[in-house]
Automatic annotation (TrEMBL):
Its main location: secreted. It comes from Rehmannia glutinosa. It is found in: Secreted, Cell wall. This is Exopolygalacturonase-like. InterPro entries: Glyco_hydro_28 (IPR000743), Pectin_lyas_fold (IPR012334), Pectin_lyase_fold/virulence (IPR011050). The keyword Magnesium does not apply. SUPFAM superfamilies: Pectin lyase-like (SSF51126). Residues 1-22 form the signal peptide. Gene3D superfamilies: Single-stranded right-handed beta-helix, Pectin lyase-like.
């Protein structure tokens, strides 16, 4: 480790070198790369994409602690890729204070993300600002309702091969596609996000996670037109803690089994979450006629459902009309302390694959009340080995 004096000297030198044009000293002594110094133009008209990329490259290549600063103001951005690996001291901070507004032309986006982080180890994304995907103008280009092979519009924040990172205190609104998509990444901590899009906006998932290990989402409020958080193939060791969802489609594992040779989902904890008026509560969904894979080791604990259409649901015939069974094997799933109200009388629906039945599913202390007149809440099951303990409203499936 370098001694204090050396680090101090380097910081003085670096801020002296940069402060006159592009960078100034940062709060922790590192250098701050302000997008304004790289030509960003706040205001609603002119695009600032190149200025943002230049400022990132300078911050990322800086030989010390660095922060990319986006001060207050509205910045128009097209496709923006923040690429690593960085030479700066880990972590690099991106401080978003202003509002980023997506260019509302769909041809401006060629890939999976509007704002992408690629191959970065150690990122802090924070600052209280707003990331506005301009979905209100772009949703008309989504044709997924009529085309099963549609290409989703870009995610507002796309992270690929990002490790050891923390995203917090950001507002995401009206994404054109997903609000956040995390893939090929490890150890991502997400907290205190606010994600908002209308309940009828298409495919505006809050956070989609795939092919990643150790992702934690906590203390966030997510209101969208699609899944609140969706856990796709290859997700392992994911924790969702103290998240409020709704409107939207609830917290989902899947959809799984659409692609050939999918990776398993293993290790998911969803705890202390609230679902408000969502179409599904906690759902596992897999395509029929799929290739084999597994989804296992899942715990759903202390969940409140408030007027949720399908509070607890496993659906292995998701997405297409094929009658061939899914080969995604779901096992070791625990539901504990799930309470609240169901909008449909079928409060628990465990419809598993005839080819690979669900094994070791356990429900403990379930209290889902149906407020409709004349019917009690019920459970339906198929091809599921289910154990029960504690209170059961609805009563267990009749086998
Ligand atoms: C992230 O971690 C994975 C697994 O350890 C590694 O293969 C990858 O190179 C790392 N990426 C970066 C950008 O450090
Ligand atoms: C799983 O995630 C937790 C944090 O949520 C972390 O402390 C733990 O080390 C992770 N385990 C593995 C095997 O990656
Ligand atoms: C559970 O969630 C509520 C908000 O719904 C929060 O106030 C409380 O701190 C959370 N408890 C724990 C143990 O995380």
């Amino acid at each position: 480790m370098a001694n204090r004096t050396t680090i101090f000297a380097v910081l003085i030198l670096s801020s002296a070198l940069f402060s006159c044009n592009a960078a100034g000293p940062g709060p922790s002594g590192g250098a701050v790369f302000n997008v304004l110094s790289f030509g960003a133009k706040p205001g609603k008209k002119q695009e600032s994409t190149q200025a943002f990329i230049k400022a990132w490259n300078a911050a990322c290549n800086f030989n010390g602690q660095s922060t990319l600063l986006i001060p207050l103001g509205i910045y128009k951005l097209g496709e923006t890729i923040f690429r690593g690996p960085c030479k700066s001291i880990i972590p690099i901070t991106v401080q978003v204070q202003g509002t980023l507004q997506a260019v509302s032309d769909p041809s401006a986006y060629s890939g999976d993300g509007w704002i992408s982080f690629d191959s970065v180890n150690g990122l802090i994304l924070t600052g209280g600002g707003t990331i506005d995907g301009q979905g209100r103008v772009l949703w008309q280009y989504n044709n997924c309702k009529t085309n099963g092979n549609c290409v989703l519009l870009a995610a507002s924040i796309y992270m690929n091969n990002v490790n050891n990172s923390n995203v917090n205190g950001i507002n995401l609104i009206n994404s054109m596609g997903f609000h956040m998509h995390i893939t090929g990444s490890n150890l991502i901590m997400i907290h205190s996000l606010s994600i908002t899009a209308p309940g009828n906006s298409p495919n505006t998932d809050g956070i989609h996670i795939s092919k990643s290990n150790t992702v934690e989402v906590s203390m966030s409020v997510i209101r969208t037109g699609d899944d609140c958080i969706s856990i796709g193939q290859g997700s392992t060791n994911v924790t969702i803690n103290t998240v409020t969802c709704g409107p939207g489609h609830g917290i989902s594992v899947g959809s799984l089994g659409k692609e050939p040779k999918e990776l398993d989902v293993k290790g998911l904890i969803v705890k202390n979450c609230t679902l408000l008026g969502t179409t599904n509560g906690i759902r596992i969904k897999t395509y029929p006629a799929s290739n084999p894979s597994r989804a296992s080791g899942m715990l759903f604990q202390d969940i409140v459902m408030d007027n949720v259409m399908n509070p607890i649901i496993i659906d292995q015939h998701y997405g297409t009309k094929s009658t061939k069974p899914s080969l995604v094997n779901i096992h070791d799933v625990d539901y504990q302390n799930i309470r609240g109200t169901t909008l449909s009388p079928i409060a628990v629906s465990l419809m598993c694959s005839s080819q690979v039945p669900c094994q070791n599913v356990h429900l403990q202390n379930i209290n889902l009340q149906f407020k409709g007149i004349g019917r009690r809440p019920t459970s339906v099951c198929a091809n599921a080995k289910v154990g029960y303990s504690g209170l059961q409203i609805p009563p267990p499936c009749k086998i």
